[in-house]
Amino acid sequence: FELLQRAQREQESVSRNGSSAVNAPVPSRSGQFSAEEAVRLVHRLFLVPGPEAPRVVLFSGVDPGDGCSTVCMRVAETLASEVGVSGSFCVVDANLRDPSLHNYFGLENRNGLVDAVTQPGPIRNFAQQVDGGRLWVMTAGSQATNIHALIGSESLRTRVAELRSEFDSVLIDSPPVNLYADACGLGKLADGMILVLQSNATRREAARKAKETIEGAHVRLLGAVLNKRRFPVPDSLYG
């Protein structure tokens, strides 16, 4: 507390004198999922030594707007750029009701997941390589006529198995748990699920309901991400 008070006095002194503070990088306080947090999640989730590390992971929010797609995409980018980690990785847009991965990566939404389930061919034919690197993106693809039937189809199960054998890690973005049954259906095909919550927005009752729904579907809950968290310290003191 004394340090914070002193920092505030120094900041006020700088403002009165009109001099500039030391040029030093200040951590982001925007509340968005930062690069450092993505690195920590990658190490805790995908780089665990031994056979226990999950290879197919589903990401789902509690409610719409929790930032699940952003978290999933940033984790995929971080994993693909991790030094000392070999192999190739694929992020799949399984949010067929509101797809967004193609916009984030600047790709065309064609020949994606829906097409892979309904058409024959090698699984990589339905994914797009990002900038010639190790990251591949499978967009949602064509509009599905019956999403419930597609999620529960044997063809989808086969395609997820092909993704598992073709890539070292697969990250799947899905709709919110409390809004649609898609997430739990997809979760049964994965090694586990990451639940994304929004700070100061997700209600405790909603989070508890999502957790009970996941466990009731016998889907392994790997952990949770608290997204858009803001520090309680004022910007002037934090700087």
Explain how this protein is built.
With 239 residues, this protein is of the alpha/beta class. 39% of the residues lie in helices and 15% in strands. It contains ten helices and seven strands. It has helices at residues 2-17, 35-45, 68-81, 101-105, 113-118, 147-151, 154-166, 182-187, 204-216, 235-238, and strands spanning 56-61, 89-93, 128-129, 135-138, 169-173, 192-198, 221-227. Helix 2 crosses helix 3 (68-81). The longest helix is centred in the first third of the chain and has 16 residues, at 2-17. The model is unreliable at 17-31 (pLDDT under 50).
Main beta-sheet annotation: 7 strands, mixed
Strand order of the largest sheet: 3-4-2-5-1-6-7
DSSP, total strands: 7
Question: Which strand-content bin applies to the residues?
Answer: 15-25%
Show unreliable segments: 17-31
Order of helices and strands: HHEHEHHEEHHEHEHEH
Question: Level of helix content?
Answer: 25-40%
Mean pLDDT: 82
Shape: globular
Cα end-to-end separation: 15 Å
How many DSSP H or I helices? 10
Q: Structural class of the helices, strands and pairings?
A: alpha/beta
Radius of gyration: 21 Å
